[in-house]
Specification:
The complex is a heterodimer of chains A (164) and B (441). Chain A has 164 residues and is an alpha+beta fold. Chain A has two helices and eleven strands. In chain A, the strands form two sheets. In chain A, strands 1, 2, 3, 4, 9, 10 and 11 form a seven-stranded antiparallel sheet that branches. Chain A has a four-stranded antiparallel sheet with strand order 5-6-7-8, with no helix packed on it. The longest helix of chain A is centred in the N-terminal third of the chain and has 28 residues. Chain A starts with a helix and ends with a strand. The model of chain A has no long low-confidence stretch (mean pLDDT 83). Chain B is mostly helical and 441 residues long. Chain B has a two-stranded antiparallel sheet. The longest helix of chain B has 32 residues. About 11% of the residues of chain B have low confidence. Classes of the chains: A alpha+beta (164), B mainly alpha (441). The interface between A and B is medium-sized, with 27 and 38 residues.
């Protein structure tokens, strides 16, 4: 009985809209092939994304508070930060231009970027040029060994000073 | 075995070897000319015959060929430079100095590589202008235009990845800025920047990545796409030409007796060695005579179809362009040394920090807005370029420079060209320290 039912189903005009075995297998193998192609492209992307980087650590020590007497405004070129101290207030401002990553230089009015002419005031607020936002301030803490520690992973609102 | 026959076969050996490599003697007949094109691996990408219009020097100005030959020069000089280059932040710059001081022809090869790269960017752009102003991107050549635009972008990316490699000031800051522009791309911007640099800042990882892209990934992809680009020239019916170029102008006194008229072969079809079905633009199905040939050889009838044999007409023209291109690169490399700036100083960007001339238009735009100048407008421009053949439905004016029927399209494209060149000129000559406006005179 089962054989008799199967035979007419294989005729083309009766399979319109139905899923035949052939169509099902075509569909499954296409999904399998394209699926594995997509998965392999994706795994290549995973491969080229490094899990660990060899660059600078985010947290680093910059020295004792006494190294930065009041009135200091010094750029640490290796860490790309500018350490500012006025009285007891101390802060670390990034010197990486928020526009396209050039290193800003200190000018009389604050910071200026040589690449595309962005300008910032003493606190890192944008005063001109294409920079979209102010220079970030990084969190400064006192490590147990008495040295100041800057954490580039943690941005703090401008105007938040560390009390030395 | 008689000694004489042994000796005979020995004297024939050089000729036998020669003929096993080159199956045809230098052609003296039309059949020979067609067989030479047809059986030689390096020539067979050409049709046996080309339309006379195709080899008119002022139609193409050989710009596509110049681009390709510069690419070949870049591959050869690039491979040679690889023998002395080390992609390490410690060594790369010193290796550049070594090329100057202690490698034979080191400076010269680096000059050739640098100037050929600049030349290729210029040539590929001019080639695109040629194709546009002659209306050559129209059906059935739409997709070849798209491939061309992709190849143009790959050329730019190749030169971009190339100039990190000397690890001088220009290299470092151009890549810092370039990667930061990528970081402005929506959604995946920061991810792309991180994947490109392999780190949060430009350093050893970025140098290695750009090196691999520059010497392996991009040349491979480009070689493949160039092959498809060339292949499609023929599959799309040869170079574009006006309709009248296909018409038989004069019978030229050729004998038509050999022409098998009973096979309904229409002479208007441009000679095509292996193409059997006419280009889709021609509604009536027509057969080129080569399609009827069995066996490894081709036979060509003398049809008054305004075409000439590729051997020697096309090949001489190509050789001429090659010699001219190579001569140009050699002369420029003898006269001018490729720039090498100070070694990288990650604390102090040069002021002003300028990219090579072909990116100064982009740099001028990002000085107004990083997103719009670096991502938004360029993406829009590329999208429009890619869609050009699908947006422009005007079918007239194909194969002629500045055809009147294409006044609107040509004007729009000319505006696009002038604006971009204008931005490059502003960025090159009118921008000084801190990217401030300066007057060059």
């Amino acid at each position: 009985m089962a054989m008799a039912k199967k035979a007419p189903a294989s005729e083309p005009e009766q399979t319109e809209g139905q899923v035949t075995r052939r169509r099902m297998l075509n569909w499954l193998s296409s999904v399998g092939l394209f699926g594995s192609a997509i998965v392999s492209v994706f795994s290549n992307l995973v491969f080229i994304k490094p899990r660990a980087t060899y660059g600078q650590p985010n947290r680093f020590s910059i020295g004792k508070p006494e190294d930065f007497p009041s009135g200091t405004r010094i750029t640490l070129s290796e860490q790309n930060i500018c350490v500012v101290r006025e009285g007891e207030k101390l802060c670390a401002i990034s010197t990486v231009c928020t526009h396209l990553g050039c290193i800003v230089s200190t000018s009389e009015t604050g910071f200026a970027c040589p690449c595309h002419g962005s300008r910032y005031d003493q606190d890192g607020n944008v005063t001109g040029g294409p920079a979209p936002k102010a220079l970030p301030w990084y969190k400064v803490t006192l490590a147990p060994n008495g040295e100041l520690e800057v954490d580039k992973g943690e941005e703090i609102p401008p105007g938040t000073y560390f009390n030395a | 075995m008689p000694k004489k026959s042994y000796f005979n076969s020995l004297t024939e050996l050089p000729a036998n070897i020669w003929h096993s490599i080159f199956r045809n003697p230098l052609p003296s007949s039309d059949l020979g000319r067609s067989q030479t094109s047809f059986t030689n691996f390096f020539l067979h990408i050409h049709p046996v015959k080309v339309n006379k219009h195709t080899i008119k020097p002022w139609f193409t100005m050989g710009l596509g060929l110049i681009t390709f030959f510069l690419f070949v020069i870049l591959i050869v000089t690039g491979v040679l430079l690889m023998f002395y280059y080390v992609p390490s932040t410690e060594q790369a710059y010193n290796r550049m100095l070594d090329l100057r001081s202690s490698v034979a022809f080191g400076t010269f090869l680096r000059n050739m590589h640098r100037w050929a790269a600049h030349g290729m960017v210029a040539a590929v752009f001019l080639h695109m202008c040629r194709v546009f102003f002659t209306g050559s991107y129209k059906k059935p050549r739409e997709f070849n235009w798209v491939l061309g635009v992709v190849l143009f972008l790959l050329t730019l990316f190749s030169s971009f990845t190339g100039y990190l490699l000397p690890w001088d000031q220009l290299a470092f800051w151009a890549i810092t800025v370039g990667a930061a522009i990528a970081g402005y791309a929506p959604v995946f911007g920061k991810e792309i920047q991180f994947l490109l640099l392999g780190d949060t800042t430009v350093g050893q990882e970025a140098l290695l990545r750009f090196y691999v892209l520059h010497i392996a990934v991009l040349p491979l992809v480009m070689t493949m796409l160039i092959a498809v680009h060339f292949w499609r020239i023929r599959k799309d019916g040869g170079l574009s030409r006006p309709e009248e170029a296909d018409a038989a102008s004069q019978p030229q006194g050729e004998s038509l007796e050999t022409w098998p008229t009973e096979l309904d072969v229409t002479p208007a079809q441009p000679a095509e060695a292996v193409q059997t079905v006419a280009a889709p633009a021609i509604e009536k199905k027509r057969y080129g005579v080569q399609g009827l040939v069995r066996g490894p050889f081709t036979k060509v009838g003398n049809v008054p179809d305004n075409s000439v044999f590729s051997w020697p007409n096309l090949f001489m023209a190509e050789l001429f362009v090659f010699v001219l291109t190579l001569a140009g690169v050699l002369v420029v490399s003898l006269l001018f040394n490729a720039p090498l700036e100070e070694p990288v100083n990650i604390a102090h960007p040069p002021n002003p920090a300028k990219a090579p001339w072909y990116f100064l238009g982009l740099q001028e735009m990002v000085s107004y807005s990083a997103f719009w100048g670096g991502v938004g407008i360029p993406t829009l421009e590329v999208l429009i370029l890619l869609l050009v053949p699908y947006l422009d439905r005007n079918t007239k004016g194909v194969g002629r420079w500045f055809a009147k029927e294409r006044l609107l399209a040509n004007t729009l494209f000319l505006t696009f060209v002038i604006v971009n060149i204008g931005l490059i000129i502003i960025g090159t000559f009118f921008r000084g320290p801190n990217w401030e406006f300066v007057s060059p005179w």
